[in-house]
Specification:
By secondary structure, the chain is of the alpha+beta class. The protein is 55% helix and 15% strand. The protein has six helices and five strands. The chain has a five-stranded antiparallel sheet with strand order 2-3-1-4-5. Helix 1 (5-21) packs across helix 3 (57-64) and helix 2 packs antiparallel against helix 4 (91-102). The longest helix has 43 residues, at 132-174.
């Protein structure tokens, strides 16, 4: 079904809005993917804050002008599925990596994060980024570790001093003078 000019403008405006807020973009070759697989991927994408869209490359090129993803314009060739991570940078990477395991036809072609273009193999790197909760837990560990180490050091010193006093008492009781 051919799109008229107003529909194309709506799609470009929608993509431009999403791209302006997105943390990362992955363009994926999807030829050979079944309708059931695409439906499952779209459902999972909605749950994880990933915007998925199959759109003509020319419309995407127009939508990306003025965004950090403008660097990918020259690499948009062939039928592509676009995955924008809207909530956290690694969400699209995890989604694509998960669905690529069960579907050999799903192949990442473009990875872009914060205005930089990366090779398709960087999907694994992007997928390994911690989600929001994991990042907060890591930060909490980093912040509490110095205090924990200090407490362990104080306890070790107190234990050593207590052992020294117990040894002195034991030796004084063993040698009556």
């Amino acid at each position: 079904m051919a799109l008229n000019l107003s529909q194309k403008k709506e799609i470009v405006a929608e993509l431009a809005e999403v791209a302006a807020k997105a943390h990362s973009l992955i363009a994926v070759e999807y030829a050979g993917t079944t309708v059931e697989q695409m439906t499952a991927m779209r459902k999972k994408a909605r749950e994880n804050g990933v915007f998925l869209k199959v759109v003509k490359n020319t419309l995407v090129s127009r939508a990306l002008i003025g965004t950090g993803f403008e660097v990918v314009k020259d690499t948009l060739t062939g039928p592509l599925l676009y995955a924008f991570s809207t909530e956290e940078p690694g969400a699209a990477g995890r989604l694509i990596k998960e669905f690529a395991k069960g579907n050999g036809k799903l192949k990442a072609k473009i990875v872009s994060v914060e205005g930089q273009l990366f090779p398709a193999a960087h999907v694994d790197v992007l997928a390994s980024l911690p989600n929001h909760e994991e990042a907060l837990a890591m930060l909490a560990r980093v912040l509490t570790e110095p205090a924990s180490m200090f407490a362990r050091a104080l306890k070790a010193m107190a234990d050593k001093q207590a052992d020294g006093e117990n040894t002195a008492e034991a030796s004084s009781q063993a040698d009556p003078v």
